[in-house]
Amino acid sequence: MNHIVTVQEAVTAFADFLEPTDTELATIEQEMPVILADVDLLDAQITTLDRTPSEVDDRRIRRARRRALAARVALVNRTEGASLPGGAA
């Protein structure tokens, strides 16, 4: 009879290394408006998968696309301004 051995110790031995760093968490926080705008866009698109989109659905998708694009532009402008010396944009 073979005994089943758990590998819990081997898996959890590196758990501290799997956590995100403070820099990664700050980056995620900075990108959160883009993430949320993309989720809204996906939600608008998913609602129209099983039916023909109405005029209201089309407007909702267009607004969500504009918000997602605006969030991406704001993120790019924020990160480019932060990387230039002297704060020049």
Protein described:
It is built from four helices and no strands. By secondary structure, it is mostly helical. Helix 3 runs antiparallel to helix 4. The longest helix is centred in the last third of the chain and has 29 residues. The N and C termini lie far apart (70 Å).
Task: Note the main attributes of this structure.
single chain; 89 residues; mainly alpha; 4 helices
Order of helices and strands: HHHH
Regions with little confidence, pLDDT below 50 for 5+ residues = none
For the largest beta-sheet, the strand count, sense and barrel status come to:
none
Number of helices: 4
> Which range does the strand content fall in?
under 5%
Helix share bin = over 70%
The overall pLDDT average reads: 84
Structural class: mainly alpha
What is the rounded Rg? 22 Å
Q: What is the molecular shape? A: flat
Our measurement of the CA-to-CA distance between the termini, rounded to an integer number of angstroms, reads 70 Å
Tally of strands: 0
